[in-house]
Amino acid sequence: MELLPCLFPCTTEKQPQTHPNDLISSESSTFSSLDSQQSLLSVPSLTPQSSQLHHHQIPIVHHQCLATLSGHSSSVSSLTLAGKLLYSGSSNNELRAWRPDPSNSVHPDSTDKIIATSNGAFKSLVIIGDKLFSAHQDCKIRVWKINKNSHQKYNCIATLPTMNDRFFRFFSGKNYVQVRRHKKCTWVHHVDTITALAISRDGSLLFSASWDRTFKVWRTTDFKCLESVSKAHDDAINAMILSNDGFVYTGSADKKIKVWNKHEGKKKHSLVATMEGHKSAVNALALDTELCVLYSGACDRSILVWEKADTGSGHMVVAGALRGHSKAILCLAVVSDLVCSGSADNTVRIWRRGEEKNYYCLAVLEGHTRPVKCLTAAVDHTNNEGRGSVFYSAGTSYLVYSGSLDCDVRIWHVFLGSNSSVS
């Protein structure tokens, strides 16, 4: 299937639809409503009007769906890439590994691709070396040893918190925290769905965020819980991302993004800044590490663009908003100079930063029949000539992978050719 490229910015705001919430009930804490909420009219748009496009250089764009991976029998909730393998986790506790061939648009075989099963839905995936870490709805983190033989299931080598961690915290009252009105638990436990995982730049630390309003820090060598930041937000934490300079960004259903850092000589992370701009639950975060630009997506249908306020702090200020989706933003991904956004309107949009910090919607990827829950993307280094029905000359190719509540994973090819003046 080849899709027509959208070369111009999308500035029209669609009216909310009134049909019932599409998401499964277990995710109601994250997405208070997938029907379009009021957009942030007070925030300036970074997507210029068509009348403002004169003399701007817009790249020639071609895009198409290369393949649909239809092995899952329930919604796809997490994706990650590692080498030539694409991993997808689903809400029915399955983890699958795919070896998609971008040069071939034939539907890949999904037989014998279930590499792991668990007791809780997969919510987030990250990989360090030969270990895959997965976050789950049952409040646990699992560590899987990656098997080089793709036809064999992966072994679960640890469940966090580990038995040692729980045992050594069990006997001392100071290790217990109030988690509900009449319930206490040791601080190493998450007590609600774990929604996000992130890895420190050197790979030594694993960060986890949860609907229990906390985030925790784990050592990746022995899986020990080193720190727990309680009451980090006033509501569920839906997203987390780390910067190269050590700042931790968390996005929450309390409409806020908070910035954390561990100062030299300190044992715990402390709050550096609170960034307020969204008018509804923050669902997704993505970071352009080269430009030091943060992107946040929320139920208000807008993607806010945040830029560093100064060089020595993690605090950022709103530069503007990207508008075009007609429903909640559920996931974001940054690859090179592109920003990818997935929405409850069943589409993926591709954005690019242009001159004078303007952004252009280069493409709208249509094909999913239900909300797009997760995204990952990479530069395509394979030979692009003759891919599909289009011959590609000089330019840059990208592969975008999207997972949806329609149970499918789709592979999209996006090609950016030489610039063309718009007049």
UniProtKB/TrEMBL annotation:
<dbReference type="InterPro" id="IPR015943">
    <property type="entry name" value="WD40/YVTN_repeat-like_dom_sf"/>
</dbReference>
<feature type="repeat" description="WD">
    <location>
        <begin position="275"/>
        <end position="307"/>
    </location>
</feature>
<dbReference type="InterPro" id="IPR001680">
    <property type="entry name" value="WD40_rpt"/>
</dbReference>
<feature type="repeat" description="WD">
    <location>
        <begin position="230"/>
        <end position="270"/>
    </location>
</feature>
<dbReference type="InterPro" id="IPR020472">
    <property type="entry name" value="WD40_PAC1"/>
</dbReference>
<dbReference type="Pfam" id="PF00400">
    <property type="entry name" value="WD40"/>
</dbReference>
<dbReference type="InterPro" id="IPR045182">
    <property type="entry name" value="JINGUBANG-like"/>
</dbReference>
<keyword id="KW-0853">WD repeat</keyword>
<protein>
    <submittedName>
        <fullName>Uncharacterized protein</fullName>
    </submittedName>
</protein>
<keyword id="KW-0677">Repeat</keyword>
<feature type="repeat" description="WD">
    <location>
        <begin position="69"/>
        <end position="98"/>
    </location>
</feature>
<dbReference type="InterPro" id="IPR036322">
    <property type="entry name" value="WD40_repeat_dom_sf"/>
</dbReference>
<feature type="repeat" description="WD">
    <location>
        <begin position="187"/>
        <end position="228"/>
    </location>
</feature>
<feature type="repeat" description="WD">
    <location>
        <begin position="322"/>
        <end position="351"/>
    </location>
</feature>
